[in-house]
Design goal:
Blueprint (H helix, E strand, L loop, with lengths): L3 E4 L9 H16 L3 E6 L9 H14 L5 E4 L4 H13 L3 E4 L3 H13 L15 H9 L5 E4 L5 E6 L3 E6 L7 E3 L7 H12 L3 E5 L3 H14 L7 E5 L2 E2 L15 H6 L4 H8 L14 H7 L10 E2 L2 H14 L2 H10 L7 H7 L9 H9 L9 H9 L9 H13 L4 H12 L7 H8 L1 H8 L5
Parallel strand pairs: 1-2, 2-3, 9-10, 11-12
Antiparallel strand pairs: 4-5, 5-8, 6-7
Protein backbone atom coordinates (compact mmCIF):
# COMPACT_ATOMS: atom_id res chain seq x y z
CA UNK A 1 0.00 0.00 0.00
CA UNK A 2 1.34 3.43 -0.98
CA UNK A 3 0.63 5.87 1.82
CA UNK A 4 -1.34 9.00 0.92
CA UNK A 5 -2.30 11.51 3.59
CA UNK A 6 -3.90 14.91 3.30
CA UNK A 7 -3.85 18.28 5.00
CA UNK A 8 -7.10 20.08 4.28
CA UNK A 9 -7.18 23.68 5.53
CA UNK A 10 -10.30 25.75 5.12
CA UNK A 11 -9.25 29.17 3.76
CA UNK A 12 -11.35 31.15 6.21
CA UNK A 13 -8.45 32.45 8.29
CA UNK A 14 -4.73 32.20 8.90
CA UNK A 15 -2.96 28.93 9.68
CA UNK A 16 -2.10 28.66 13.37
CA UNK A 17 -0.29 26.21 15.60
CA UNK A 18 -3.40 24.13 16.22
CA UNK A 19 -4.02 23.23 12.60
CA UNK A 20 -0.39 23.30 11.47
CA UNK A 21 0.20 20.49 13.96
CA UNK A 22 -1.99 18.33 11.69
CA UNK A 23 0.07 19.33 8.65
CA UNK A 24 3.34 18.47 10.38
CA UNK A 25 2.11 15.09 11.63
CA UNK A 26 0.71 14.13 8.24
CA UNK A 27 3.82 15.27 6.33
CA UNK A 28 6.21 13.43 8.63
CA UNK A 29 4.07 10.29 8.58
CA UNK A 30 3.99 10.29 4.77
CA UNK A 31 7.73 10.77 4.42
CA UNK A 32 8.48 8.18 7.11
CA UNK A 33 6.52 5.65 5.03
CA UNK A 34 7.77 6.76 1.63
CA UNK A 35 4.31 8.08 0.82
CA UNK A 36 2.73 11.26 -0.51
CA UNK A 37 1.36 14.40 1.13
CA UNK A 38 -1.71 16.03 -0.39
CA UNK A 39 -2.68 19.64 0.14
CA UNK A 40 -6.43 19.96 -0.30
CA UNK A 41 -8.05 23.37 -0.04
CA UNK A 42 -11.49 22.85 1.52
CA UNK A 43 -13.12 25.99 0.16
CA UNK A 44 -16.75 24.98 -0.40
CA UNK A 45 -17.85 27.60 2.16
CA UNK A 46 -18.16 30.36 -0.42
CA UNK A 47 -19.29 32.95 2.11
CA UNK A 48 -16.18 32.70 4.30
CA UNK A 49 -13.46 31.29 2.05
CA UNK A 50 -11.09 33.91 0.63
CA UNK A 51 -8.34 33.54 -2.00
CA UNK A 52 -5.94 35.52 0.15
CA UNK A 53 -6.21 32.89 2.89
CA UNK A 54 -5.44 30.16 0.37
CA UNK A 55 -2.37 32.09 -0.76
CA UNK A 56 -1.35 32.68 2.86
CA UNK A 57 -1.72 28.97 3.70
CA UNK A 58 0.47 27.94 0.78
CA UNK A 59 3.03 30.59 1.71
CA UNK A 60 3.12 29.33 5.31
CA UNK A 61 3.50 25.70 4.24
CA UNK A 62 6.36 26.58 1.89
CA UNK A 63 8.11 28.56 4.64
CA UNK A 64 7.74 25.55 6.92
CA UNK A 65 9.18 23.31 4.21
CA UNK A 66 6.00 21.22 4.04
CA UNK A 67 5.95 20.90 0.27
CA UNK A 68 3.04 18.93 -1.15
CA UNK A 69 3.11 16.15 -3.73
CA UNK A 70 -0.51 16.61 -4.80
CA UNK A 71 -2.80 19.64 -4.68
CA UNK A 72 -6.58 19.67 -4.95
CA UNK A 73 -9.22 22.35 -4.44
CA UNK A 74 -12.78 21.45 -3.51
CA UNK A 75 -14.41 24.44 -5.22
CA UNK A 76 -13.39 22.94 -8.56
CA UNK A 77 -15.10 19.61 -7.78
CA UNK A 78 -18.69 20.70 -7.18
CA UNK A 79 -20.00 18.66 -10.10
CA UNK A 80 -18.50 15.50 -8.59
CA UNK A 81 -20.18 16.19 -5.24
CA UNK A 82 -23.53 16.82 -6.94
CA UNK A 83 -23.33 13.61 -8.96
CA UNK A 84 -22.49 11.54 -5.90
CA UNK A 85 -25.29 13.21 -3.95
CA UNK A 86 -27.82 12.16 -6.58
CA UNK A 87 -26.72 8.56 -6.15
CA UNK A 88 -27.11 8.82 -2.35
CA UNK A 89 -30.60 10.28 -2.83
CA UNK A 90 -31.53 7.42 -5.12
CA UNK A 91 -30.22 4.95 -2.53
CA UNK A 92 -32.39 6.55 0.16
CA UNK A 93 -29.43 7.73 2.24
CA UNK A 94 -29.91 11.47 1.57
CA UNK A 95 -33.32 12.92 2.37
CA UNK A 96 -34.71 16.49 2.20
CA UNK A 97 -35.60 18.46 5.32
CA UNK A 98 -37.47 21.77 5.46
CA UNK A 99 -37.08 22.95 9.05
CA UNK A 100 -35.68 26.42 9.56
CA UNK A 101 -32.74 27.01 11.88
CA UNK A 102 -35.12 28.52 14.42
CA UNK A 103 -37.34 25.43 14.36
CA UNK A 104 -34.35 23.12 14.73
CA UNK A 105 -33.01 25.20 17.61
CA UNK A 106 -36.37 24.94 19.39
CA UNK A 107 -36.40 21.16 18.92
CA UNK A 108 -32.92 20.87 20.43
CA UNK A 109 -33.88 22.99 23.43
CA UNK A 110 -36.97 20.88 24.07
CA UNK A 111 -34.98 17.65 23.84
CA UNK A 112 -32.32 18.92 26.22
CA UNK A 113 -34.89 20.22 28.72
CA UNK A 114 -36.44 16.75 28.70
CA UNK A 115 -33.09 15.12 29.38
CA UNK A 116 -32.84 13.68 25.87
CA UNK A 117 -29.83 13.92 23.54
CA UNK A 118 -30.28 16.50 20.72
CA UNK A 119 -30.67 13.92 17.93
CA UNK A 120 -32.69 14.85 14.85
CA UNK A 121 -36.10 13.17 15.04
CA UNK A 122 -36.34 12.43 11.28
CA UNK A 123 -39.65 14.25 11.09
CA UNK A 124 -38.85 15.10 7.48
CA UNK A 125 -39.21 11.44 6.51
CA UNK A 126 -42.90 11.60 7.42
CA UNK A 127 -43.78 14.70 5.41
CA UNK A 128 -46.67 14.31 2.97
CA UNK A 129 -46.57 15.67 -0.56
CA UNK A 130 -49.01 18.37 0.49
CA UNK A 131 -46.75 19.51 3.38
CA UNK A 132 -43.74 19.60 1.06
CA UNK A 133 -45.66 21.65 -1.50
CA UNK A 134 -46.75 24.01 1.26
CA UNK A 135 -43.17 24.53 2.44
CA UNK A 136 -41.94 25.12 -1.08
CA UNK A 137 -44.76 27.58 -1.70
CA UNK A 138 -43.49 29.47 1.34
CA UNK A 139 -40.11 29.70 -0.41
CA UNK A 140 -38.39 27.12 1.75
CA UNK A 141 -35.58 25.15 0.19
CA UNK A 142 -34.56 21.81 1.65
CA UNK A 143 -31.31 20.93 3.30
CA UNK A 144 -30.30 17.30 2.89
CA UNK A 145 -29.50 14.93 5.72
CA UNK A 146 -27.64 11.63 5.63
CA UNK A 147 -29.49 8.71 7.20
CA UNK A 148 -27.29 7.01 9.80
CA UNK A 149 -27.96 3.29 10.06
CA UNK A 150 -28.34 1.69 13.52
CA UNK A 151 -25.68 -0.61 14.88
CA UNK A 152 -22.06 -0.49 15.97
CA UNK A 153 -19.60 1.78 14.16
CA UNK A 154 -16.08 0.70 15.07
CA UNK A 155 -12.51 1.36 14.04
CA UNK A 156 -9.05 0.67 15.37
CA UNK A 157 -7.58 4.12 15.85
CA UNK A 158 -3.81 4.09 15.33
CA UNK A 159 -3.40 6.45 18.30
CA UNK A 160 -6.35 5.66 20.59
CA UNK A 161 -7.00 1.99 19.92
CA UNK A 162 -10.50 0.56 19.48
CA UNK A 163 -13.31 3.12 19.30
CA UNK A 164 -17.01 2.34 19.00
CA UNK A 165 -20.16 4.39 18.47
CA UNK A 166 -23.74 3.23 18.10
CA UNK A 167 -25.48 4.55 15.00
CA UNK A 168 -28.77 5.08 16.82
CA UNK A 169 -27.05 7.55 19.17
CA UNK A 170 -25.87 9.79 16.33
CA UNK A 171 -27.89 12.53 14.71
CA UNK A 172 -28.34 12.44 10.95
CA UNK A 173 -25.89 15.10 9.71
CA UNK A 174 -26.71 17.79 7.20
CA UNK A 175 -24.56 17.14 4.13
CA UNK A 176 -26.01 19.73 1.75
CA UNK A 177 -27.21 23.15 2.83
CA UNK A 178 -30.33 24.97 1.61
CA UNK A 179 -28.06 26.86 -0.78
CA UNK A 180 -27.05 23.59 -2.42
CA UNK A 181 -23.49 23.91 -1.09
CA UNK A 182 -22.12 20.63 0.33
CA UNK A 183 -20.49 20.62 3.76
CA UNK A 184 -17.05 19.42 4.83
CA UNK A 185 -18.33 16.18 6.35
CA UNK A 186 -19.51 15.06 2.92
CA UNK A 187 -16.98 16.56 0.50
CA UNK A 188 -14.07 15.18 2.51
CA UNK A 189 -15.41 11.66 2.17
CA UNK A 190 -15.97 11.99 -1.59
CA UNK A 191 -12.41 13.23 -2.05
CA UNK A 192 -10.81 10.73 0.32
CA UNK A 193 -12.52 7.87 -1.51
CA UNK A 194 -11.72 9.10 -5.02
CA UNK A 195 -8.08 9.99 -4.39
CA UNK A 196 -7.37 6.91 -2.30
CA UNK A 197 -6.34 8.57 0.97
CA UNK A 198 -4.93 5.76 3.10
CA UNK A 199 -4.58 7.46 6.49
CA UNK A 200 -6.59 10.28 8.04
CA UNK A 201 -4.64 11.81 10.92
CA UNK A 202 -6.39 14.70 12.63
CA UNK A 203 -7.39 16.21 15.95
CA UNK A 204 -9.52 14.53 18.59
CA UNK A 205 -12.35 17.01 17.94
CA UNK A 206 -13.09 14.99 14.78
CA UNK A 207 -13.75 11.67 16.53
CA UNK A 208 -17.55 11.91 16.25
CA UNK A 209 -17.15 13.10 12.66
CA UNK A 210 -15.19 9.95 11.96
CA UNK A 211 -18.02 7.72 13.17
CA UNK A 212 -20.42 9.53 10.85
CA UNK A 213 -17.97 9.61 7.96
CA UNK A 214 -17.37 5.87 8.18
CA UNK A 215 -21.00 5.30 7.24
CA UNK A 216 -20.77 7.95 4.49
CA UNK A 217 -17.64 6.22 3.13
CA UNK A 218 -19.49 2.92 3.06
CA UNK A 219 -22.36 4.57 1.18
CA UNK A 220 -20.18 6.56 -1.25
CA UNK A 221 -17.43 4.06 -2.01
CA UNK A 222 -18.35 1.05 -4.07
CA UNK A 223 -15.63 -0.90 -2.26
CA UNK A 224 -16.41 0.54 1.17
CA UNK A 225 -12.76 0.21 2.19
CA UNK A 226 -11.95 2.42 5.15
CA UNK A 227 -8.76 4.45 5.57
CA UNK A 228 -6.81 4.13 8.79
CA UNK A 229 -7.80 6.82 11.29
CA UNK A 230 -5.70 8.44 14.00
CA UNK A 231 -6.82 11.20 16.34
CA UNK A 232 -4.19 13.15 18.26
CA UNK A 233 -4.89 15.33 21.28
CA UNK A 234 -5.44 19.08 21.16
CA UNK A 235 -2.89 21.67 22.22
CA UNK A 236 -3.41 23.23 25.64
CA UNK A 237 -1.47 25.71 27.75
CA UNK A 238 0.67 24.64 30.70
CA UNK A 239 -2.40 24.47 32.97
CA UNK A 240 -4.32 22.28 30.54
CA UNK A 241 -6.63 25.08 29.41
CA UNK A 242 -7.47 25.87 25.80
CA UNK A 243 -4.49 27.45 24.09
CA UNK A 244 -5.01 31.19 23.86
CA UNK A 245 -3.57 33.65 21.41
CA UNK A 246 -0.69 35.56 22.94
CA UNK A 247 -0.07 38.70 20.90
CA UNK A 248 -1.45 36.85 17.89
CA UNK A 249 1.47 34.43 18.02
CA UNK A 250 -0.72 31.44 17.31
CA UNK A 251 -0.54 32.21 13.60
CA UNK A 252 2.34 30.87 11.53
CA UNK A 253 2.62 34.27 9.90
CA UNK A 254 3.32 35.86 13.29
CA UNK A 255 5.80 33.16 14.29
CA UNK A 256 7.69 33.83 11.06
CA UNK A 257 7.65 37.57 11.78
CA UNK A 258 8.96 36.77 15.27
CA UNK A 259 12.09 35.23 13.66
CA UNK A 260 11.46 31.71 14.86
CA UNK A 261 13.06 28.96 12.81
CA UNK A 262 10.66 26.50 11.11
CA UNK A 263 12.58 23.55 12.53
CA UNK A 264 11.84 24.72 16.06
CA UNK A 265 8.12 24.46 15.29
CA UNK A 266 8.56 21.04 13.68
CA UNK A 267 10.84 19.66 16.39
CA UNK A 268 8.40 20.65 19.12
CA UNK A 269 5.04 19.75 17.58
CA UNK A 270 6.29 16.42 16.21
CA UNK A 271 7.15 15.21 19.72
CA UNK A 272 4.66 16.99 22.00
CA UNK A 273 2.14 14.46 23.27
CA UNK A 274 4.45 11.50 22.70
CA UNK A 275 6.71 9.45 24.94
CA UNK A 276 9.69 10.51 22.80
CA UNK A 277 11.88 13.38 24.10
CA UNK A 278 11.68 16.76 22.41
CA UNK A 279 15.00 17.32 20.65
CA UNK A 280 16.38 19.94 18.27
CA UNK A 281 16.39 18.71 14.66
CA UNK A 282 18.04 20.52 11.79
CA UNK A 283 16.03 18.98 8.95
CA UNK A 284 12.57 17.60 8.29
CA UNK A 285 14.14 14.56 6.66
CA UNK A 286 16.02 13.62 9.83
CA UNK A 287 12.92 14.25 11.94
CA UNK A 288 10.79 12.09 9.62
CA UNK A 289 13.14 9.14 10.10
CA UNK A 290 12.35 9.14 13.82
CA UNK A 291 8.62 9.83 13.53
CA UNK A 292 6.25 7.32 15.17
CA UNK A 293 2.50 7.91 15.03
CA UNK A 294 2.01 5.20 17.65
CA UNK A 295 4.06 7.25 20.12
CA UNK A 296 1.23 9.78 20.54
CA UNK A 297 -1.00 9.41 23.58
CA UNK A 298 -4.57 10.38 24.41
CA UNK A 299 -3.47 12.94 26.97
CA UNK A 300 -3.81 16.66 26.30
CA UNK A 301 -0.69 18.15 24.73
CA UNK A 302 0.67 21.00 26.83
CA UNK A 303 2.35 23.72 24.81
CA UNK A 304 4.28 26.82 25.86
CA UNK A 305 5.90 29.55 23.81
CA UNK A 306 8.82 29.48 26.21
CA UNK A 307 9.56 25.88 25.20
CA UNK A 308 9.35 26.86 21.54
CA UNK A 309 11.75 29.77 22.01
CA UNK A 310 14.18 27.62 24.02
CA UNK A 311 14.15 24.96 21.30
CA UNK A 312 14.72 27.64 18.68
CA UNK A 313 17.90 28.68 20.50
CA UNK A 314 19.12 25.07 20.73
CA UNK A 315 18.66 24.61 17.00
CA UNK A 316 20.68 27.74 16.20
CA UNK A 317 23.43 26.66 18.60
CA UNK A 318 24.06 23.47 16.60
CA UNK A 319 23.34 24.85 13.14
CA UNK A 320 26.26 24.70 10.67
CA UNK A 321 27.10 27.84 8.72
CA UNK A 322 26.02 26.40 5.37
CA UNK A 323 22.48 25.99 6.71
CA UNK A 324 22.49 29.34 8.50
CA UNK A 325 23.85 31.30 5.55
CA UNK A 326 20.56 31.72 3.67
CA UNK A 327 18.79 32.65 6.90
CA UNK A 328 21.38 35.32 7.62
CA UNK A 329 20.98 36.73 4.12
CA UNK A 330 17.20 36.94 4.65
CA UNK A 331 17.73 39.22 7.67
CA UNK A 332 20.29 41.42 5.92
CA UNK A 333 23.44 39.79 7.28
CA UNK A 334 24.96 38.55 4.04
CA UNK A 335 28.41 39.84 5.08
CA UNK A 336 28.73 37.31 7.91
CA UNK A 337 31.19 34.48 7.27
CA UNK A 338 31.64 31.07 8.84
CA UNK A 339 34.22 32.23 11.39
CA UNK A 340 31.88 34.89 12.73
CA UNK A 341 28.87 32.56 12.82
CA UNK A 342 30.75 29.87 14.73
CA UNK A 343 31.97 32.46 17.23
CA UNK A 344 28.54 33.89 18.11
CA UNK A 345 25.90 31.20 17.43
CA UNK A 346 26.05 29.72 20.93
CA UNK A 347 24.94 33.10 22.31
CA UNK A 348 21.87 33.84 20.19
CA UNK A 349 18.25 32.86 20.68
CA UNK A 350 16.98 34.03 17.29
CA UNK A 351 18.76 34.51 14.00
CA UNK A 352 18.31 38.29 14.23
CA UNK A 353 20.28 38.34 17.49
CA UNK A 354 23.35 37.90 15.30
CA UNK A 355 22.94 41.57 14.35
CA UNK A 356 23.76 42.62 17.91
CA UNK A 357 27.10 40.83 17.87
CA UNK A 358 27.88 42.08 14.37
CA UNK A 359 27.39 45.65 15.61
CA UNK A 360 29.58 44.97 18.64
CA UNK A 361 32.37 43.53 16.50
CA UNK A 362 32.14 45.76 13.44
CA UNK A 363 30.63 49.08 14.51
CA UNK A 364 31.33 51.79 17.11
CA UNK A 365 30.47 50.77 20.66
CA UNK A 366 31.02 52.74 23.83
CA UNK A 367 33.14 50.58 26.15
CA UNK A 368 32.30 50.11 29.82
CA UNK A 369 35.46 50.80 31.79
CA UNK A 370 35.59 49.71 35.42
CA UNK A 371 39.37 50.15 35.91
CA UNK A 372 41.11 52.35 33.35
CA UNK A 373 44.62 51.66 34.65
CA UNK A 374 44.08 47.93 34.27
CA UNK A 375 42.59 48.11 30.78
CA UNK A 376 45.35 50.56 29.69
CA UNK A 377 47.90 48.03 30.83
CA UNK A 378 46.01 45.34 28.92
CA UNK A 379 46.10 47.49 25.79
CA UNK A 380 49.85 48.06 26.14
CA UNK A 381 50.66 44.36 25.95
CA UNK A 382 48.02 43.27 23.42
CA UNK A 383 49.92 41.37 20.65
CA UNK A 384 50.10 42.81 17.15
CA UNK A 385 48.54 39.70 15.60
CA UNK A 386 45.31 38.31 16.99
CA UNK A 387 44.20 34.71 16.53
CA UNK A 388 42.42 32.02 18.53
CA UNK A 389 45.50 31.55 20.74
CA UNK A 390 45.94 35.21 21.60
CA UNK A 391 43.41 35.39 24.41
CA UNK A 392 45.00 32.65 26.51
CA UNK A 393 48.53 33.99 26.16
CA UNK A 394 47.48 37.62 26.66
CA UNK A 395 45.44 37.00 29.82
CA UNK A 396 48.17 34.76 31.22
CA UNK A 397 50.64 37.64 30.87
CA UNK A 398 48.14 40.08 32.41
CA UNK A 399 47.60 37.72 35.32
CA UNK A 400 51.36 37.56 35.94
CA UNK A 401 51.84 41.35 35.73
CA UNK A 402 48.79 42.39 37.77
CA UNK A 403 48.12 39.46 40.08
CA UNK A 404 44.47 39.47 39.02
CA UNK A 405 42.65 36.24 38.35
CA UNK A 406 39.18 34.85 37.70
CA UNK A 407 36.34 37.34 37.42
CA UNK A 408 38.55 40.27 38.48
CA UNK A 409 40.74 39.58 35.48
CA UNK A 410 38.22 38.66 32.81
CA UNK A 411 35.13 40.82 33.51
CA UNK A 412 36.82 44.25 33.09
CA UNK A 413 38.19 43.03 29.74
CA UNK A 414 34.81 41.74 28.56
CA UNK A 415 33.04 44.96 29.56
CA UNK A 416 35.66 47.11 27.86
CA UNK A 417 35.74 45.07 24.65
CA UNK A 418 32.00 44.37 24.22
CA UNK A 419 30.07 46.49 26.70
CA UNK A 420 28.32 43.27 27.76
CA UNK A 421 28.60 41.08 30.86
CA UNK A 422 27.92 37.94 28.88
CA UNK A 423 28.56 36.74 25.36
CA UNK A 424 30.67 34.57 23.09
CA UNK A 425 34.03 33.22 24.18
CA UNK A 426 36.49 36.10 23.96
CA UNK A 427 39.17 33.87 22.51
CA UNK A 428 36.93 33.67 19.41
CA UNK A 429 35.61 37.23 19.58
CA UNK A 430 38.95 39.01 20.01
CA UNK A 431 40.25 38.26 16.48
CA UNK A 432 36.88 39.41 15.07
CA UNK A 433 37.23 42.75 16.82
CA UNK A 434 40.68 43.40 15.38
CA UNK A 435 43.62 44.94 17.23
CA UNK A 436 42.88 48.60 16.46
CA UNK A 437 39.30 48.44 17.66
CA UNK A 438 40.24 46.37 20.72
CA UNK A 439 42.95 48.83 21.78
CA UNK A 440 40.65 51.85 21.44
CA UNK A 441 37.98 50.21 23.59
CA UNK A 442 40.49 49.15 26.22
CA UNK A 443 41.61 52.77 26.42
CA UNK A 444 38.00 53.92 26.87
CA UNK A 445 37.54 55.28 23.36
CA UNK A 446 34.46 54.64 21.23
CA UNK A 447 35.36 52.17 18.51
Amino acid sequence: MTVLVRFAPSPTGKLHLGNIKAAIINWLFAKNHGGQFMLRIDDTDDTRSKPEYTEAAERDLKWLGLNWDVREQQSSRMEKYATTAERLKADGRLYPCYETEEELSLKRKMQLSSGKPPIYDRAALNLTEEQIKKYEAEGRKPHWRFKILPGAITWNDCIRGNIQFEGENLSDPILIRESGIPVYTYTSVVDDCEFGVTHILRGEDHITNTAIQIQIIQAVSREGKLPIFGHFSRLTDAKGDKLSKRKGSMSIEDLRADDLDPMAIHSLLARLGTADPVEPFLSLEDLAKTFRIEAFSRNATKFSFEDLEALNAKILHIMPFQQAKSKLVEVGLDQIDEEFWNAVKANINKITDTKDWWQICREDVSPEITDQDFTNQAADILPETLDENTWKAWTAELKEKTGRKGKDLFMPLRLALTGQKHGPELQSLLPLLGRERAVKRLRGQTA
